[in-house]
Amino acid sequence: MDISGLQRRALFALLLLNAGKTVSCEQLISELWPSGVPSCGGNALQAHMTRLRRDLERCFGAEEAALRLPGSRSGYSVHVDPGELDLEVFNTLRSGAREISESDPAEAADMLRRALALWRGPALYDVRDRTSCLYAAALQEEEHYALTLEELVELDLGQGKHEQLIGWLKALTERYPYREKFFEQLIVALGRTGRKVEAASLFRRMRSEMVEQFGVDPSPRLSRAVQRMLEDDLVVEGGFRSVEL
């Protein structure tokens, strides 16, 4: 895609992140041209908006496009109907799942799966580096995505789906090697399926890597959770032995 096309997509992304609100021309120009406002900045912004409206006209028609992308002297905004913006639906489903997580964990888990299914890749992947605002928004939403994964796993663990989760959790610990929660959840799933030796080995490996790379131990919360999971004895060849960390 050409540079002007990427810049126009970045402009649209900035407006969508503030859907229903007017974003000032000054803010849009400073975001799109961070190295300095060009002398033709205002004209360039107007040109991008004109092309955006033409794109919307092809989708909705001229009258609808004008309603969707109104402008004023102070700035521009974009209108989206409820349920049209994936990010809004994602956050609505996540909030709804939290509200019913204790009363109906199965339905809450289903809502989180529907929320996660809306993702198609890294947030704002093609324009996140175009402006500081988009980069910050992308990092924030990807953190929300990871937290939603943690919440879903926690609900599934609470419903006893330990065996089914092990493979997925192993993949998540590979994908997110510095998120302790996934390691904690994997260790819990391993322990509850009788694989406590493997769980203890995983914790020792994780602790060794953290000390080697960052000079710190795992958090006290993780250590306590692991200790609680591994404190029972294992039967081995007619006797007992404790699993040590």
Automatic annotation (TrEMBL):
InterPro entries in UniProt: AfsR-DnrI-RedD_regulator (IPR051677), BTAD (IPR005158), OmpR/PhoB-type_DNA-bd (IPR001867), Sig_transdc_resp-reg_C-effctor (IPR016032), TPR-like_helical_dom_sf (IPR011990), WH-like_DNA-bd_sf (IPR036388)
Domain (OmpR/PhoB-type) ranges: 1-80
Protein's GO biological process: phosphorelay signal transduction system; regulation of DNA-templated transcription
UniProt entry keywords in alphabetical sequence: DNA-binding, Transcription, Transcription regulation
Gene Ontology terms for molecular function: DNA binding
Residue ranges flagged as DNA-binding region: 1-80
Family: Belongs to the AfsR/DnrI/RedD regulatory family.
Protein name per its UniProtKB record: DNA-binding transcriptional activator of the SARP family
Organism expressing this protein natively: Actinopolyspora righensis
